[in-house]
Every structure is written in C-alpha cells, then in structure tokens.
Amino acid sequence: MVNYLKEHRFQYKQKCSASIIFAIATSFLALIASSCSQQTAINVAANSDSSSKTLTTKTTEKNNVIRLGYQKGGIIPIARQRGELERQLVTQNIKVEWSGPFDRCATLLSSLNGNWADIGGCGDIPSMSGIAAGQPLCIGSVQRPSPDSLSNAILVRGDSPIRKPADLVGKKVAVNQGGAGEYLLLKVLEKEKIPKEKVQRVYLSPNDAAPALYQGSVDAWAVWEPYISIAQLEHKARRITTTHPAPTYGIMVVRGDAAKENPVAVKAALTALSEDGEWLNQHTNAASDFLVKELKVSDTVAKQVTKNRGPESYVFPNTGDIANLQKTADWLLEQKIIPQRVNIATAVCPLETTAVR
Predict the structure, then answer these.
(1) Whole-angstrom Cα distance, residue 2 to residue 346?
(2) pLDDT per residue over 117-147, tens digit each?
(3) CA angle 33, 36, 38 (to 5 degrees)
(4) What 3-state DSSP class applies to 224?
(5) Residue 274 contacts by C-beta under 8 Å, 6 or more apart in sequence?
(6) How confident is the model at residue 298 (pLDDT cuts 50, 70, 90)?
(7) What's the CA gap between 287 and 305, in Å, rounded?
(8) Nearest-5° angle of CA 60, CA 64, CA 65?
(9) Could you report the per-residue pLDDT of 150-171, keeping only the tens digit for each?
(10) Which of 78, 100, 164, 350 could bridge across to 290 with cysteines, CB 3.0–4.6 Å?
(11) Nearest to 277 by CA among 82, 70, 51, 41
(12) Do 78 and 290 contact (CB within 8 A), yes or no?
C-alpha cells in the first residue's frame, strides 16, 4: 500500500509538473506572439507614416515647381535673364524651370499641351486657336491692347512695288495659320474693303517666312516683333501698315492641369511676371540690353523692338477684358479661322484672381 501511494504520488507530481510547464510555456509563447503583434503593428504604422511622408514630400515637390515656356523677345526670357522672378519665388518655396525658346506661339502651346511647360506668353489669336482646337489651356493674365503699338506689321521687300494694302491684290502674303499674322492680314483687308479671296495666304512659320520674303517666294509678310525690326534694320524690309486696325491682347497661357493642381504657384509666377514687366517699363535701356543678349542682335535693333512693343503690363483679366476677347473669338469663328466657339469666361484660369480694375 505504501509503495502504491508513493508510485501514484510520483505520477501526480509528474502530471502536475507537466501541466505547470505547459501553462508556463503557453503563457510565454502568447507573450511572445503578443509582443510580435504589437511590434508588427508599430512597424506597419511606422512604414505607413513613412510612406505618407514620402508621398506628401513628392506631392509638395511637384506642387512647388513651375515651368515657364518662352518665345524669343517676350517678357519671360527677359525675366529669366534678370533673375528677380526666381529670387522672389524661391522665398515662397517655388522652384522655377525654363523651357524654350520657341519660334512661335503654336510650338509653345504644343509644349504646354504636351506637359513640357506650365505657363507661356502668346498673343490672343493663337491662344484662342489652341483652346478652340481642344488643347487643355486657360487664360492666366493679359496684356491689354495699345492702339498706338507698332508691334505688328505687314512687310514687303525694300525694292517691292507694293506701297499700300490695296497693292496686295493678287499677291502672296506669308502668315502663321490661325495666329497673329493671319489675323492682322484679314483685319487690314477688312478695313480696306478688299475681299480676302483676292489675296493668297501662304502659311509659314516665322523662320520659314523670313527667307521666303527676302528671296521673293512671297510678296509680303504679316508678322510681329522682334521679326519686324530684324527685317527692317538688317534686311531692308519695309512696312506697308502702321498701327493695327484691331489691336490684340497679349496672354499668359496656362496649362489647364497646372492651374487646377498648382494654383498657388501659378498665381505667384503670374504676379512675378507682371512685376518684371512693370520694372522693365521703368528701365527701357535695361530691357534693350536684355534683348541684345537674348536675340543676339545689334543694340539698334533691340532699342527699336523695345520701342515698338511698348509697355509690358500684365494684369488678371476683368469683365471688360473677357468681353473684348469674346468679340475677337466670335469674329475668328465667323471667319472660320477656329473650328468652334470659345467661351472666354470659362477659358479664364480658376485662380480666383479676377481683376477689379
């Protein structure tokens, strides 16, 4: 009996010890699992926070870059040379990148449409043509017309017998299709009551139109500055028009997505460009010097370009500007220069900057 009790007490101790060990082990494993779960949760949260910060940083970096496209002779390349725009925007944590030079508005608008630039300076006619063609563009700021501006002209060779618009009947005139040159020619013919069908329009870019005029492939060329002064002073071309019969606006065109996704940077850049223009209006000699460097032309040419173009004053469009631009857009549609009507009010960028003056 004693032996029996000893044997069963031993078995009981074994069972008890095994139970205790099992309980301890289970508790230990649970503790480890809990610890691992907590650490995993912490790591996931940390990684999520890190990813969020990375995404935020990338978004911030994207929204803090503004790309300015430019043509030769405009306010944007002069602002690039001067450097004040970049210095001003960097204080707002906005980085500036430059794209250009482009030979005409059509190629500049294509760069905006292709997401190579966010803002570019063009005339109102090519800008409306681009919008009418379905390009995702909007109107950022405008330069109001100056009736006395000499920044557009119809040119002929110095030895040409053409002396006045009426002499263009039966002749070939180089223009940029859907741009300022074609608009100028049509408005001159309209004013002189010359049927547009009696003058042949030859669609050429400025780089192709210049040699075509000098070599006699075309009889005249409807164009703008700085090409006018270069043609006059370096190639002895001659004007047959003085002021524009329907002065045009200058427009800072904005890529639509940039205006929606990055309105603060777009507005800041447009404001800085306006301030650059006002500075240049007060420092015309400096403006000419900038053109000499940019265009690689003589000081004489640069001074005439500056004088002919007149003040560079860009403002955010008000209701009067919108109404004036709408009249031009409707005329372009009547003339079948653009394929569909452009609603100027809805084409203005959504920057909440409509002028009151």
Answers:
(1) 106
(2) 999 999 999 999 999 999 999 999 999 998 8
(3) 110
(4) strand
(5) 141, 313, 314, 315
(6) very high
(7) 10
(8) 130
(9) 999 999 999 999 999 999 999 9
(10) 78
(11) 82
(12) yes
